[in-house]
Amino acid sequence: EVQLVESGGGLVQAGGSLRLACATSGIIFDDYAIGWFRRGPGKDHEGVLCMASSDRTTWCADSVKGRFTVSRDNVKNVAYLQMNSLKPEDSANYYCAATKYGNSWYVQDDYDYWGQGTQVTVSS
């Protein structure tokens, strides 16, 4: 059974930091890129927020570039999203997802497996 489990969400003041983790099992971690997504209250998914592949390629959307950093531990099979300088508009449910190499990592519908999400709330 494939599982992706996010952790690390919570309540933080504006300007603060959080580190989210995405623990995976049931997949060959090296065969998948891990993407991070978010859905704010009353909003749709924004698309891929950040992505990390096993060859250490990383990417983040302009909306969070410079504040968010994505990484992964290919031994522990865990991906991370470090979020700094958080803003109230970053409040959302954050999800990680896995897409197999060969798929288009920048296409949300190409992700094969999804976690349940972890809530991040940033107070002003």
Question: What can you tell me about this protein's structure?
Answer:
The chain starts with a strand and ends with a strand. It has 124 residues and is mostly beta strands. Strands 2, 4, 5, 6, 9, 10 and 11 form a seven-stranded mixed β-sheet that branches. The chain has a four-stranded antiparallel β-sheet with strand order 1-3-8-7, with no helix packed on it. The protein has strands spanning 3-7, 10-13, 18-25, 32-39, 50-52, 58-60, 68-73, 78-83, 92-100, 113-114, 118-123. The chain contains no helices and eleven strands. A hairpin with a 4-residue loop joins strand 7 and strand 8 (78-83).
SSE blueprint:
Elements: E1 3-7, E2 10-13, E3 18-25, E4 32-39, E5 50-52, E6 58-60, E7 68-73, E8 78-83, E9 92-100, E10 113-114, E11 118-123
Parallel strand pairs: 2-11
Antiparallel strand pairs: 1-3, 3-8, 4-5, 4-9, 5-6, 7-8, 9-10, 9-11
